[in-house]
User: Fold these one by one.
Assistant:
Number 1:
Amino acid sequence: MAKPKIKEKRWTVDLEKKIQEEHFSNKERYSFNPNSEKEIFVIDTPPPYPSGTWHIGAVAQYSMIDVIARSQRLLGKEVYFPWGVDRNGINIEFTVEKKTGRKMKTYDRAEFLDLCREEIEKYTQEMRNIAKRVGLSCAYDQEYLTDAPDYRSVTQSIFIDLFKKGAIVEELRPNLYDPVEGTTIAEAEVERLSRKTKLVDVRWSVTGDSKHEPVIISTTRPELICACGIVLVHPDDSRYQHLVGKSLDLPLPTAGRSKSVEIKAHPSVNMEFGSGVLMVCSFGDQNDVSVFRELGLTPFQAIDLEGKITELGDSLSGMLVLDARKKAIEILESEDKIENLVERDQEIPVSERGKNPIEIILLKEWYVRQTHIQERMKELSNEINFIPSRNKQFLLDWMENITIDWPVSRRRWYHTEIPIWYSEDRTKVVTPPHGTYVQPWKDSPPSDSVVLDRETCKELGKYEDLKSELGSLEGEEKVFDTWMDSSNSNLYVSGYLSNPKLFDRAFPTGVRPQGKEIVRTWLYYTLLKSTLLLDKPGFANVWIDGLGMDPWGRKMSKSLGNGIDASSVLECGFGGRTGSWKIKGPEGKQVALQAKKIGSECFRFWKAADAQVGDDFQINPEQIELRYFGVLTKIFNVGRFASQFEFDGDLDTIPDDLENEDKWILAEFSDLLEKAKTGYSELDIYTAAQGIKTFSTGVFASHWLEMAKTRLYNDDASATWTLHRIFRDLLSILSPVCPFFTHHLSTTLYEKSSVEIDVFPESPISDTKSWTDITESLVDFNSVVWKAKKDAGVSLAAPISGHNVPDSLKDIESALVSMHKLED
RNA sequence: GGGCCGGUGGUCUAGGGGUUAUGACGUCGCCCUUACAAGGCGAAGAUCGGCGGUUCGAUUCCGCCCCGGCCCA
């Protein structure tokens, strides 16, 4: 018996970290070769948005995407697992504003962009570190940044293509608008908050009929009375039919508009709400918008870009919405026009990022048309395989709810610029050629730009040639919604525009992995793009994971203060460091958790084997350690044990004189290989990981190893071959889940790292059934004997009599006799 | 209000018309058996959220309800 080749007595986080650092010192380790002969598999990695710390739930999701990448490599594919960082957007603008205490618009634009770029770079480095720490096998040497010229030029080129196709329009429309941040937002960015508002019952008088009793209209937005275009009652509401056709005087002073409005019947009125009479203003909510559109009314511009009431509001003009509301109530009160006033809870729409109440105002913006193409999108999404299939419903539900086109222009700065210059007479536009990143707010068009007719989008000629006819150009100052960039990620990583040959092979993109919380944004917009641009489904597979929940079963979020920082888990156990977490629960409850050692391998194993894809998963570091570190220790020790038995022969050639008990475990192992292969192929990590865990700690370690021990000590060839063949291949199929762990064991024992294996291990036994049929009785028999020894108070190594090997186990009788020291 | 998911020993969970209802952690008892005490073996512990229905038989299927979560109006 030789000394074990594996020196370490156990797996430690210190060892893990050492391996990790060596691992990524080779920068090309996980490079992507687009010219490979292998089948190409592109993963549309969600580019993380750098914002300080990385959330443990997100890191859990990424580590499972890595399991997909690694398992696809193991299945023989050329995998592109891109490393991208999403850096555009309002978040970094907020961060810089907060840090410097100055609002964006007080800066010079170029100066502000520099500050953003510097700031985001700091956070980006932190992301790269965590990505490597958790073992993501990304092509780091091919990193992409969404704010880099090459990425932004793709966004701009796609915009121009869609514009030429008529899929993008510029129009004056009612828009969701955040007055505090001064920018348009999309439906997908709207959130609802419950707030206390005053519901005011206002008395309106019938025009030219002072004898008529006043009409009561309930509203939460009296400041918008100046924008009222019509008053509606329900056609079935018998209380008000006599009013239809009459007019009402506006109860507040206005300027520059008629002082009264007509009353009409309309089915959208809720008879139960308030008095059952509804004033429709431009624009109090989405219903107002559709009523204005339907009845062809001319909207009023009651709120300006700063969120202040316009001159329309007469004495309210210049006031912020909330102040104007207060003042409006005061005026109404002083004129005795308030019938009743109650405080109530109301769900109001706010912007997701700034939590500011949203106004709907008329703005000239760029829109990606989407309402016309929902049916086609639905057809194309039927060609995509959703994992798990039920999560497709999130997408379908959202598509049902699309009511307006997607406004993509924003009045912000650290985003991709809209690549357009306008001619002096505004009838023509200049657009840059494909692949050129432009900043129209400060640059002139590149010389090879083209001129388009603004209405028809037809190409009129080269910019060079038409320059003189355009007059002085004005560059567009607006930028794109960041989803306009993010929704190109699959096109970008699949080689769209940059590598047509690759694109041909790689599109639709292999898999889009993502969390279910961004189905309505990232997934939806990406599919919209591929439908509009290529009329194709964007992906072969969409893999939608659940959310990380706290130990109380609630979603982890900043606002609840129940999040766990990724590095506290990954570094737990490094250099003797322990982890402790205090996690706030509902109603002031709090739980304190502690762990001694976790690290990336334990964490990944837990996520892979403990939660089905798409299910929400509770993250409890204490449980992760308790349930999975022991599994690692167990497998590590099997390796250490195996490493004392030298095997010089060829592990790939199956000996023809295998013992029966070895055939049995090889059969069990063959079944596991089959199961893991199917699991990995179908992106079902859970089944694969569970199977590996159960096999390695169960029948393999507890039953077969005990049976084979004696023979191993006696250098039995069959036992040694079986042990090493299984352990080597076991490491290979575990490597997608625990790359550092298996890398260490496989390089020490078999000279080749399991993370480099690109052929899925072959089953050593083909007809497994006759052997696996005995597993149950074998496990039972062992239990019976062990229990008998225990009851008799003898050691497990002591001989025992009176136990006969059952008929079903006759094939391995001698192994059982020597294992248990059975005597007659 | 709508959609989706879930409710199984103290905790987390598997399963799915007939099982002795799976496993893990915890608890308790025994064992340092030459890989592993960061182990091993064993024991206790569950009227499978409630009420109805289908069925010879329901924890499983159906309906309603209750509770929790997420998403959306």
Note: The longest strand of chain A covers residues 190-204.
Number 2:
Amino acid sequence: MQLLPGFRDFFPDDCARRNYILEMWRAVARRYGFVEYDGPVLEPMALYEKKSGGEIVGQLFDFTDKGARHVAMRPEMTPTLARMVAARERDFKKPLKWFCVPQFFRYEKQQRGRLREFYQLNCDIIGEASSAADAEMIAVLIDMLRGVGLGEKDFVVRLSSRTAWQEFFAQAGGKSEDEYEFFQIVDKAERNPPEKTDAALAKFSLTAQQVLDFMRSKTATAELAPILADLTARGLGGFVEIDYAIVRGLAYYTGVVFEVFDRSKNERALAGGGRYDKLLSLMSDGKVDLPALGFGMGDVVLANLIDDTPAAKAQLDAWLARERAADVYVVIAKEERRAEALGVVQQLREAGHRTDFPLTAAKVGKQFRTAEQLGARLTVLIGDEWPQVKVKTLATREEVLVDAGEVLAFLQRKS
RNA sequence: GUGGCCGUAGCUCAAUGGUAGAGUCCCAGAUUGUGAUUCUGGUUGUUGCGGGUUCGAGUCCCGUCGGUCACCCCA
């Protein structure tokens, strides 16, 4: 049987690599004072239709359940988060700093950096309108990437704002109801040929040249300047660049938006996010009106970039080696001593040593080879010497005879 | 959703239209209780699947499934 397209088996090594990223995300988020939440993997289809109309429906894993409910595997977290916050918003002190590491499902054709199933870190700050929240959000994002060994040479946060484009559009005489259409044109202006952009902009009496000129101006607006100052004060200024080419595709973004790219631009965006100050009100039919911002970062592109960045790869490999290494391998040299060996194994395990041993009789040479392959630091050989055992440090090949009752204490001294 | 390229052993890959192979991995062994290397032996395939052309198809053609890259989209 083949896998479904875009889905992954996680063999132990794959699973360890995934956990490396997920554990780092959680560690950094907590370090920044974010708390973890989660929601259902399956949601009513209506939850996603409410926010975005119907166009994303084609990219959902949706079906009718046995109770005739139209349901969808979650493709994103924001609607769930909005529902949760709207339901119990008054229980929590503002601002909320929440994160989540959900698995998402999107029915799209897979390609590099995009599968039909993936993990995505979501960080959100809700109930804080000041630019300090934007800076905090970008800072945690930067440290997520630094946490896996990526540096200023490897990635850059491209910071922009829809507010800046709103002002640009308004000054050119544009109406606010046309804003979203205008944003879409801007979003594509770098990729499309100028003639095409000119044609699209004609109805607004604008030209591609005007848009591109503004896009390439690197001056921070009054909205963005304090964010840059905040990040610079943290020593993180070098990770951020103003880039008005970033507008993001979604309709609900209201102000600051940002995306993270690898410097070589070999990969898709590593992360993206921004302010969505009106969304909670929209999702809760006006019951809850709180400013909010957040970002998402997927595991697939990040894993690709780690693999392609030597320093990050080395850090990952070192972590993997530690992660899978056994601590002690108990060698049963005389099968008649298996009962005694089992006692020692149990004792070691109860003391917290990661311990393994041969389940069936095997030659001593083979057992040492297995110990080596498992990455064990020590072997405890049990045989004719009983009630003494031989403790060997594999790296140095040094071997010591120890009373069986003293093994634990001996290992304690060795570590 | 559209298009290009690709699909052979668990993995990496060979094989002019003419008997499906190598390396690696794994397993066993090479003086009774000590790890690398080395040596010997062994397991593994409806050549993704289904049709067609041909005396003969891994190879050519069509379809299909899967992979990959680009476009689209990107929550």
Note: Chain A has two domains: 12-318, 325-414.
